[in-house]
Amino acid sequence: MTLLKTKIKNVINLANSLVGGDNGLGDNNRLIFNNDNGFPVGKNNGFFVTVAIAIIAIIAIVVETRHALSLQQLQQQQLQRQQRQRQRRQQQRPQYSNLAMIMFLVISLSSPLMAQTGFDADRAFDDLVAQCDLGTREPNSAGAAVALKFYQEILEPLADEIHLQNFKYDDPYADRKLDLTNIIARFQPEKSERIILCAHWDTRPRAEYDKYFPKKPIIGANDGASGVAVLLEIARQLKEAPVNPGIDIILFDGEDYGAPGDLQYYLIGSRYYVDHPLHPLPRQVILLDMIGDANLTIKIDPVSYQSAPRVMEEIWAIAAEIGYDQFQFVPGASMYDDHVPFIEKGIPAIDLIDFEYPGPDNQYWHTHDDTVDKCSPESLEAVGNVVLSWLYRQ
Ligand SMILES: [Zn+2]
Questions:
Q1: φ, ψ of residue 335 in degrees (nearest 5)
Q2: I need a labelling partner for 348 at 20 to 30 A (CA). Which of 25, 79, 233, 310 fits?
Q3: Which class for 13: exposed (0-12), middle (13-18), buried (19 or more C-beta within 10 A)?
Q4: Exposed e or buried b per residue across 135-153, where buried means at least 16 C-beta atoms within 10 angstroms of its C-beta
Q5: What CATH number matches the domain at 98-392, 1.20.1440.20, 3.40.630.10, 3.10.310.10, 3.40.1080.10?
Q6: What is the whole-number distance in angstroms between the Cα of residue 177 and the centre of ligand 1?
Q7: From ligand 1's centre to the CA of 332, what distance in Å?
Q8: Residue 72 backbone dihedrals phi, psi, to 5 degrees
Q9: CA-CA-CA-CA torsion sign (87, 90, 95, 98)
Q10: Which residues, in sequence order, are CB contacts of 148 under 8 Å at separation 6+?
């Protein structure tokens, strides 16, 4: 109301100046105001003109205020609509059995509080940055050739065996062969009970969701470098403190090669591996992908949950014990990722992935915004610590 009164007073002052002494109409046309309350105490020929202007102005102010109000109401209605849509979407998501939830709670509450592992998040983050510094790492690129050497140099002194699985692949989008390489670092290769930890090291040859340069390859700080960075640091930890099962750390090539919709040209390296595996086969596969997002939220991939529900519950329970709320035991998107070829061969496999980069609209995904500054050591630490803690319990 105070604002409205001030506005009215301004309008009357304006009107006064219009019909006032300087307007050439002379003193007769002056409107005299009582200075205390701003209302006229005398009138002359200009009075009616002033009042008319003032009334029109007041109507304009009232209409403007009502318009602002109705805009606010519209925004509120839109918010309510979005909230209702969210609720509806949540209701449509697959429901998990009460038994699963109870098991999750029992595991969370019954285990002792976890000690932190030796996982060095800063060193892992340095590896994330170092990969990006090599340039884009899509198949047949200069960056890929250098990256391959970079991984070998780190893994060779840590692992008991290194295997480079080189193979050729017909490029579906050009008249050439792709030279692809899966890197396999084996720990305690003599052990028959094995677990595969994997990530893809290739980066995408295009950025289809980028507004400006959709055809250029991406740097892949999160989509590529993050999973590898955590695995390189886990390799250092395994060298220091081996776990009970034998571990195969595999960095897959050609995960992200396909154009949108061409599912057959994704997961090239992992598909090749399941057809040419090193034996013995693993009892469990854990895939890390897009886990560097500074705003990390890892939800349950329904495909993984169907494949290995118990392992998913154990991992989320460990995260809850340590206090990493980045792991949320709620259903997320269904993933078509490097775990799928294993599941198709009957091997339990799960994907730890944050498909909300940085939020539910996933707006940095497959764009040139997928850069180092969008990732954080804390996110790598949460995933590294949880996976290592799970391994130490096997
Ligand atoms: Zn991708």
A1: -105, 135
A2: 233
A3: middle
A4: bbbbbebebbeebbebbee
A5: 3.40.630.10
A6: 21
A7: 17
A8: -60, -45
A9: negative
A10: 164, 181, 183
Strand, helix or coil for residue 375: strand
* Alpha carbon of 204 to ligand 1 centroid (Å): 6
Domain boundaries, the chain: 2-81, 98-392
Place of tokens 């591996």: 273
Would strands 32-33 and 161-170 be described as parallel, antiparallel, or unpaired?
Answer: unpaired
As residues whose CB is below 5 A from the ion ligand 1, the structure lists 223, 256
